[in-house]
Amino acid sequence: MRTAICPGSFDPVTNGHIDIIQRTCALFDRVYVAVLENYHKPSRLFSAGERVDMLRQCSAKLPNVEVLAYDGLLADLARELKANAVVKGLRAVSDFEIEFQQALTNKQLNPQLETVFMTAESQFMYLSSSVVKQVGLHGGTIGDFVPSEILGAVEDRINSVLRSA
Ligand code: ADP
Predict the structure, then answer these.
(1) How many other β-carbons are positioned within 10 Å of the β-carbon of residue 87?
(2) pLDDT digits (tens, 9 = 90+) for 106-117
């Protein structure tokens, strides 16, 4: 059984994330989407539980996906889940340096674990969770950036942040 992990903070999930998850599903028998629990950026919009719920809604039609929250080392999680590979989306050269460093560190910690880089689709090359937050918090429309299943929840949260500011 070929098993992959797609890790990330997913705050919030974007169409770019879902594209990578869907394409990983076509290549692997089982895909764990691992939500980084310990994510305390000041700009954080959603708790780990909320991010897990949103990913479950967005991946409901993908039968080989399981969503979970994790804390600690990805190399250990991969051992626990018997995963062969970590799949990461690469958008631009700017992603490369940190991703390469993480991949080599994970390989050192867990030599059985391969990191596979998947090229972002050209229409999602610019898209990140930060872009969604920046556009939304400045009153822009985010409907083209996030999956329809969670659009209402993301808009509501952005509106409540704006109201409390
Ligand atoms: P972000 O960079 O949007 O905050 P995460 O840290 O949650 O996202 O990223 C999780 C994974 O998804 C990373 O491998 C990242 O490179 C990938 N990813 C994020 N956005 C895109 C996108 N638009 N296209 C392809 N891959 C992406």
Answers:
(1) 22
(2) 999 999 999 999
